[in-house]
Amino acid sequence: MKLDPALLEMLACPECKVRVELDGERLICVRCGRQYRVEDGIPIMLVDEAEPPPEGWQPRDA
User: Fold this and answer.
1) Could you report the per-residue pLDDT of 16-35, keeping only the tens digit for each?
2) Fold of 5-49
3) What pLDDT is attached to residue 1?
4) Among 20, 32, 37, 41, which lies 20 to 30 A Cα-Cα from 3?
């Protein structure tokens, strides 16, 4: 999947307010590790629908 790089640059975790990184079909917050799905090219950035961090996930520089 491909998101517009300009859109990706503007997106932030709604909980932590830091950047997210695209990992396959998920956007992952670099601070808390929440995973937000992308459906038909549309990021679903709802904290209530986020998934927990992947196993072994470690915070990165925000």
Assistant:
1) 999 999 998 899 999 999 99
2) N-terminal domain of TfIIb (2.20.25)
3) 62
4) 32
Q: Which two tokens stand for residue 1?
A: 């999947």
Check residue 34 and give its pLDDT. Answer: 96
The H-or-E segment that residue 5 falls in is helix 5-10
Identify any residues that bridge with 22 across adjacent strands, giving them in sequence order. Answer: 27
- What's the pTM value of the predicted model, to 2 decimals? 0.87
Give the separation between CA 20 and CA 18, rounded to whole angstroms: 7
Handedness of CA 3, 59, 37, 25 (dihedral sign): positive
Q: What is the mean pLDDT of residues 3-19?
A: 93
CA 31 to CA 13: how far, in whole Å? 9
